[in-house]
Amino acid sequence: MSSNDSSSIGGSPYTGKIPDPPPPPPPGVKNGETVTSVPAKPSFPPPAHDSSKPPGKTIGQRTPSETAPTLNVNEQKRITQEFTEQAHEARQLNAQVNFIHSIPGLLEQLEQPEQMAANTPFFILVNDGGKQVSLIPPSPELLKDKDKYQLLKTQLKEQLNAVQEHYKGSEGKALGERAQDAEARLAACRNELENAQIPEPPITYPRIIFTFSSLLNATSSQPARPATGSAATEEGEYILEPLPPTRRGPPKAPPGQPPTKVFPDGFDPSKLTQQNLKKRTKTDPPKPVSPEEVSEEFRPTGAGLGKVTESFLQPSKTTGYASIWHSDKEEALSGKLASVNCGNPDLALGHGGINREFADTTPGAMFYKTIHERMLTEAKTKGEYVSFRPGQFGKHASMLSGAAAYQPPGAKNNEGTIFIDVFNKSFPEADPANGAMIYAIPPDGSAGANSNYPDTEEGKQKWLASIKQFSANILLAQNQWNIDAKKHGLPQLPILRSPLIGGGYFMHPKADKNELAAAIRTGFDETLSTLDKNKKLTITDIQYEETAGEHFKNVKPLKSKEE
Question: For the whole model, what pTM was predicted?
Answer without folding.
Answer: 0.56
